[in-house]
């Protein structure tokens, strides 16, 4: 399929797997960060995980991406069980993530940061690439063309040669999203994609996330504090509080749930 900007998806939406999180518990020395949490991310949807500070959102992301090991429970992507895998193995199954704090190489230009995202897709070995053998060169050209396509899709076409460290914060957040897309993911985990952005940048990022879903059909799971953004973007919302799931449903339903209102008011009163 082809998006407005001409970027094409490697996967058909029908081929996108469902993410099933079942009864996941994570304990850290006496503290239960996640307590029997379950939810399902349907293929090609935007699913948000929200909750007050310390609710367990980051822990949830870290379990899904293989950074933390669940104490019990299961996470399945299509037919694959993720809870026993390491981060690079989860990434190899097509799960890409962005971070709350940008994790890019500031001295490298946008192009190289995006090419690093394609590492798992590189077939020619290290040696072949180093010797610049013909097959490796051909592969390099293919990756560069794809990176240019993705950069155009996220509005970075003119900045491919610019070192990331010279870019404003909001643009760097887009580079991070582009790098995740460069992995050709089937599931994208976005950790607070608009944190620290001004209102104009927030709107742009929200539009971009919508077009990732619509043009590429990639499933998106996002953790986000900006409620307006969540309500506008998400097809479904899971609400955590003290590690427990207190609500799960369409945004309009969740927004009016007394348990959710109570959890957020409780935080405000406490802070
Ligand atoms: N590596 C760790 N070791 C010990 N405790 C941890 C660890 N990671 C998270 N926690 C604890 O688990 C609980 C859930 O934290 P988590 O960061 O997942 O919440 P959160 O919802 O992402 O919060 P925030 O919105 O503030 O980012 C907190 O009490 C936190 O202190």
TrEMBL record:
For the keyword Nucleotide-binding, the answer is yes
Keyword flag Transport: yes
Spell out the CDD domains in the cross-references: ABC_Mj1267_LivG_branched
- Write down the Pfam families for this protein, in alphabetical order: ABC_tran, BCA_ABC_TP_C
ABC transporter domain: residues covered: 19-267
- MF terms (GO), sorted A to Z: ATP binding
Per its UniProt entry, which superkingdom is the organism in?
Bacteria
Q: Which UniProt keywords apply?
A: ATP-binding, Nucleotide-binding, Transport
Record-given protein name = Maltose/maltodextrin import ATP-binding protein MalK
- The record lists the organism as Nonomuraea coxensis DSM 45129
């Amino acid at each position: 399929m082809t998006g407005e900007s001409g970027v094409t998806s490697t996967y058909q939406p029908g081929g996108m797997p469902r993410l099933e999180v079942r009864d996941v518990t994570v304990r850290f020395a006496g503290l239960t960060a996640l307590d029997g949490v379950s939810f399902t991310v349907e293929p090609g949807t935007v699913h948000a995980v929200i909750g007050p500070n310390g609710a367990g959102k980051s822990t949830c992301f870290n379990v899904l991406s293989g950074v933390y090991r669940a104490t019990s429970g299961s996470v399945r992507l299509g037919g694959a069980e993720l809870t026993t895998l390491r981060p690079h193995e989860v990434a190899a199954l097509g799960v890409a993530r962005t971070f709350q704090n940008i994790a890019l190489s500031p001295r490298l230009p946008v192009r190289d940061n995006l090419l690093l995202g394609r590492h798992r897709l590189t077939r020619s070995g290290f040696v072949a690439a180093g010797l610049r053998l013909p097959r490796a060169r051909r592969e390099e050209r293919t990756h560069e063309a794809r990176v240019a396509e993705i950069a155009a899709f996220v509005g970075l076409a003119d900045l491919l040669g610019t070192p990331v460290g010279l870019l404003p914060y909001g643009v760097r957040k887009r580079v991070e999203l582009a790098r995740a897309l460069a992995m050709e993911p089937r599931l994208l985990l976005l950790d607070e994609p608009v944190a620290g952005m001004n209102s104009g940048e927030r709107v742009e990022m929200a539009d971009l996330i919508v077009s990732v879903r619509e043009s590429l059909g990639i499933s998106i799971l996002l953790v986000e504090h900006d409620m307006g953004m969540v309500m506008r973007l998400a097809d479904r919302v899971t609400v955590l509080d003290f590690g427990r799931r207190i609500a799960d449903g369409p945004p309009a339903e969740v927004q009016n749930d007394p348990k959710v209102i109570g959890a957020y008011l409780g935080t405000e009163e406490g802070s």
